[in-house]
Amino acid sequence: MIELRGVSKTVQSGDRPLTILHPLDYTIPSGQFIAVVGPSGSGKSTLLGLLAGLDSPSTGQILIDGVDITTLSEDGLAKLRGDSIGFVFQFFHLVPSLTAFENVLIPMEIAGRRDANARARQLLNEVELTDRAHHYPSQLSGGEQQRIAIARALANDPPIVLADEPTGNLDSTTGRHIMDLLLNVRRARQATLVLVTHDAELAALADRRLVLRDGRPVPQHDTPPAVSSAQDKAEALR
Amino acid sequence: MTFIVAMALREIRASWRRLLFFFVCIAIGVASIVAIRSLIQSVREGLTQESRAMTGADVVVRSDRPLGAPVREAVAREQATGRVGEVFESIEMATMVRPATGTTTRMVELRAVQDAFPMYGTMTLVSGQYSHRLLRDHGVLVRPELLAQLGQSVGDDLLIGTERFQIRGVIDSEPGRNLGSFSIGSRVFIDFADLPSTGLLSFGSRASYELLLQVPHPPPVPGQRDAATMLARDLSIAFVNDFVSARSYRQNEGRMSQNLTRAENYLSLVGLVVLILGGIGVSSVTRVFVQQKIRSIAILKCVGSTSRQVLAVYLAQVLLLGLAGSVLGVVIAAVALQVLPFFVGDLAALLHVQYGLTMGAVLQGMAIGLLVSVLFSVVPLLEVRNVKPSLLLRQDIPAPPRFDWLKWCVATIVAATLVGVAAWQAGSLRVGLMLSGGFVAVAFVLHLAGLALVRAVQPLRYARSFALRQAVLHVARPGNQTRIILLAVGLGTFFILGVRALEANLLQDFEVQVGENSPDMFLMDIQPAQREGVSALIDRTNGALPAPKLIPVLRARIVGVRGREVNLESFEDVRGRGGLSREFNITYRPNLEANEKLVDGTWWTGPPPEMPEVSIEESLRSRFQIQLGDEMRFDVLGRIVTARVRSFRSVDFRDFRAGGFMIVFRPGPFDTAPHTYIAAVKGAPDAMARARMQGQLVTQYPNVSVIDLREVIKTIKTIVDNVTLAVTIVGGLVLLSGTLILVGAVSMTKFRRVYEAAILKTLGASSRLIAAMLLLEYGVLGAIAGTVGALGAIALSWSVAHYALDLEWEAAPLLTIGGIVATALVVAAVGVIASLDVLRRKPLATLRAE
Questions:
Q1: pTM value?
Q2: In angstroms, rounded to a whole number, what is the distance separating the alpha carbons of residues B323 and B317?
Q3: What residues form DSSP beta bridges with B643?
Q4: Do residues A220 and A189 touch, judged by C-beta distance below 8 A?
Q5: Is B613 within the bounds of a domain?
Q6: Is the pLDDT reported for residue B805 higher than 60?
Q7: Distance of alpha carbon B50 from alpha carbon B53, whole angstroms
Q8: Which of B15, B294, B299, B314 to mutate to test the interface with A (most CBs of A within 10 A)?
Q9: Which residues, listed in sequence order, are joined to residue B562 by a DSSP beta bridge?
Q10: Long-range pairs for B11-18 at CB < 8 Å and ≥24 separation?
């Protein structure tokens, strides 16, 4: 479970402070799919970065399975990410000097897994890119790069997957495939998925939506979902 | 660990082209260190293994005076006790020789030996093995160069002193020849028994008398010195007041080894300087490399890597590159040692050594290569700690902490370690500190000068030419490599121009000294009875040139000083003062000479006091605390003379018309004592006339030695040329490192250039305009680096000329301007060639990639 208690983020903009996320209390139960939506500059990516420990909040606490990650050191956060969090970026962020296979391999090597090679091959198989294993990111299409990024995010079987507009940089067909992949693997692994998106259709697939505007949550009058699960919703959309 | 090594290897695979010059920088430095150390270690090993053959005996008893009965008796006593086996004698002296038919003369180093020579080692002749029979009955062995100089061949006759000797063979190699010592002439061997007949051993002649002792070798006792060293020590004590030295081959071996170790350490510093320059390049590459890798580092941190792991990845990469560079350096050194004989001649055969890499040198070179790689990259690598994974979400990069204490601590440790490495290489902490301090000072001065010059060219940013405006702006833009290029290229130019300027000044000074009216020949060992004859001969052959001035010379040793600040009762006490115990040439005269100035006391006038008086050169006062009124005891040809110090003089030793004497006596005590004369003579400018005069002098006065200063200057010029060549090679290496750093700097910042060029092309700039911008930018940078180096060179040559060599300094404008232009051209050419990609790339592809 992820708990946010009064989490805010203020940065210095020129000579004055700018609050990009106002104090937020929010709880994400394990295994849920949460969509974070809102216009540009509403604080969505900032929130995701705080959840991943990529950045530290100005106030408040973030508890992951009861552990306050705001008290962890940089190295402690790195270990947390390696063990428990998979991150998928809008711009893929693969290491350009490594092949697709090696990019998938890195988190497992960092974690010291012995079965890293076999598992990397299996993950590439899951994202249907076995034949592109030894290509460099510059030799892959956007969709292929994002599939590699998903494979990398899932490498250590993290209980939490955070995705920052994973389809934002892709055409609609490829984006749809990527979402299918993400939702499939979430379902298979029973992982918590926090998805930042602009796409209302995608957001509608989530168990819950967190709408942000100017760094504040917008109250939602949730209507009960017409379909019971995210998977059913995805199928309904087809 | 797997992750760190695997990532390091992957990173090298991905960026080896960009890092190529990283290990070339290290390779050149390591190659210099390994080659220099291996060469000297090979020579040392070869020489020390043959130290007994080099010394020619187990123990050598040597004196500048004929060995008297007490010495011979002492040796005979030791022989009777069995500590000494075989004994033979040898005499060495410098003298003139000439062919029996012909007028050409040459100064040679004559050695007269007995039939037991050589006791150790072998003497080989061009025609085969040496035998003493070849010397018997006026036979002579000579070096091939003398035959060539005199136009003689085996079987011809040579005149040595008053005697005629037949050339019976040509020396190929000779044991006991100290290659490190200055040689006044070519080596000539005759039989010991024939030497007296030459008449060369007349009074006052400069000869070295030797007894060569063989020591029977009992089995060595652990912890005890060997028999030869013990014997040499005992004999030294026995001869302490007889001006006789006794040295064992072991002591010579120790001294030789010590000298070579010192030479090895000092020369290795040259390699270290090159390596440190390489290190500066490494540091610059690493900084830019980290900047380029920020996104990858953020990704690694995002997927769970700690800062420590990322740092370890890049440190491992540096270690691997450093190792590769060091291995390449060792390979370059091995090749250099193989091709060396083609450049320096067959020195190896002469020294009986095998050139090759030595394990010690290889290990040291590799260790230093790795150390320098790590030391120079660790500080820029620490930046990886400041890379936040959040930059993958936002473009703004958080500023690093204001005071990074860890970085400063590491920088301090790096600086201290570098001082340690320098001290280790020099074999002396003092030298290590001096080198490091000097390096920092030079770098600081070059940096300041560079900064000032970059500012000075800034008005050109308003120039009408677009290309020139852009070039000047680029030189001063943020994140530029100007400082590093100025330092590296400027330092290389500084070395080369500085040494060239100094050489020009030095040679010019010699030319001035041997000007139109100054003497250019030096006559030695003129006997009193020969004074008038020699004067007349020179007057006759020299025509209108001024008559020579003959100066009386005696040889003396200081055997005691009784003074206010120093009290040396015996010669043993004097010997403890090092240089004071050497043999001095002394003279006497009533007047001060033109090259002397009285600095303290009074010159002798009026009636002489009872005690003889003496005037001392002021350097002896400062070195040995001798004061006015002190009583000094001199041993002059066995006679003890006590004299009172009446004055101190400063002597300009460069003006040798009246000689340069440390010790001058008031006339009186030696008027009737036997002594010889020297003369400084102005010879005819025509080489033939000079040779004729020398020929006539040697024919009529065989004992008189003639030193032709014009020949000496030729020799000095050759030595200076060789030294200059050596330092120019060092400067060339530094410049090469500088050029590599330039290439590296260009390639590392190329990604930015390519992008800028793409934008400019989109805005309508032609490739030609961009090429002109690059050419001007690097041209300006090269001109600044050249100017900085040239200014440094002027400062260096002026200070060395002024303070160390006491020369009149003269500017070398052609050299300076030529140096600046050449540097500007080289830097411009290298800069443009290294940036060809910037010109070639299509703008759209570049902009898309961004």
A1: 0.63
A2: 10
A3: B632
A4: no
A5: yes
A6: yes
A7: 5
A8: B299
A9: B567, B631
A10: B11/A97, B11/B313, B11/B314, B11/B317, B12/B317, B12/B320, B12/B321, B13/A97, B14/A96, B14/A97, B14/A98, B15/A97, B15/B289, B18/B285, B18/B289, B18/B747, B18/B748
Contact yes or no for A109 and B296 at CB 8 A: no
Instruction: Give residue B575's domain range.
Output: 547-681
* Contact assignment for B303 to A87 by CB distance below 8 Å: yes
Q: The domain containing residue A85 runs over which residues?
A: 2-237
- Chain A residues whose C-beta sits inside 8 Å of any chain B C-beta: 45-46, 48-49, 52, 54-55, 74-75, 78-79, 81-83, 87, 89, 91, 93-98, 102, 106-107, 109-112, 152, 155-156, 164
Residue B718 lies in a domain: yes
Nearest beta carbon to residue A97 from set B296, B304, B305: B296
Q: Where are the alpha helices (DSSP H) in B114-163?
A: 144-150
Q: Which residue on chain B is closest to A154 by alpha carbon?
A: B303
Residue type, A111: A
Q: Across all residues in chain B, what is the average pLDDT?
A: 79
Question: What distance in Å separates residue A28's CA from the closest CA in chain B?
Answer: 21
Please tell me the least confidently modeled range out of A17-26, A168-177, B66-75, B382-391.
Answer: A168-177
Task: Give me the helix-helix angle, B767-799 and B750-762, nearest 10°.
Answer: 140
pLDDT digits 0-9 by tens, B173-194: 777 554 444 456 788 999 999 9
Q: For residue B86, which of B96, B76, B71, B98 has the smallest C-alpha distance?
A: B76
Is residue B849 domain-shared with residue B743, that is, in the same domain?
A: yes
| Whether B634 and B738 share a structural domain | no
Alpha-carbon distance A63 to nearest alpha carbon in chain B (angstroms):
18
Pick B724 or A107 by higher pLDDT: A107
Per-residue pLDDT, B849: 55
Task: Give yes or no for B395 touching A (CB within 8 A).
Answer: no
pLDDT interval class at A124 (50, 70, 90): very high
Q: Does residue B783 share a domain with residue B657? A: no
Using pLDDT thresholds of 50, 70 and 90, give the confidence band for residue B397. very low
Question: Domain check: are B638 and B759 in the same one?
Answer: no
* Contact yes or no for A10/A17 (Cβ under 8 A): yes
Q: How far apart are CA B704 and CA B697, in angstroms?
A: 8
Report the domain count for chain A. 1
- Asked if residue B498 is part of any domain, the answer here is yes
Rounded-to-integer distance, Cα B229 and Cα B387, Å:
67
**Chain A closest CA to B772's CA: distance in Å?**
32
Contact B290, B34 (CB under 8 A): no
Domain count across chain B: 3
What pLDDT shows up at residue A8? 93
CB contact under 8 A, A78 and B307: yes
Cβ atoms B249, B55 nearer than 8 A? yes
The confidence score (pLDDT) of residue A26 equals 93
How close A140 comes to chain B (CA, Å)? 14
State which amino acid sits at residue A34: I
User: Which CATH number goes with the domain that contains A133?
Assistant: 3.40.50.300
The answer to whether B757 and B838 have CB atoms below 8 angstroms apart is yes
Q: Give the position of tokens 């008398």.
A: B209
The interface predicted TM-score (ipTM) is 0.77
pLDDT at residue B310 greater than cutoff 80: yes
Residues B850 and B713 in one domain: yes
Chain A and chain B share a number of CB contacts under 8 A equal to 88
Percent of chain B with pLDDT over 90: 9
In chain B, the residue whose alpha carbon lies closest to the alpha carbon of A96 is B296
Q: What percent of chain B has pLDDT over 70?
A: 81
Min CA distance, B813 vs chain A (Å)? Answer: 52
Q: Is the pLDDT of residue A2 over 90?
A: yes
Is the domain of B745 the same as that of B823? yes
**AA letter at B455:** R
Q: Is B654 part of a structural domain of the chain? A: yes
Task: Collect all residues of chain B within an 8 Å Cβ-Cβ radius of residue A75.
Answer: 306-308
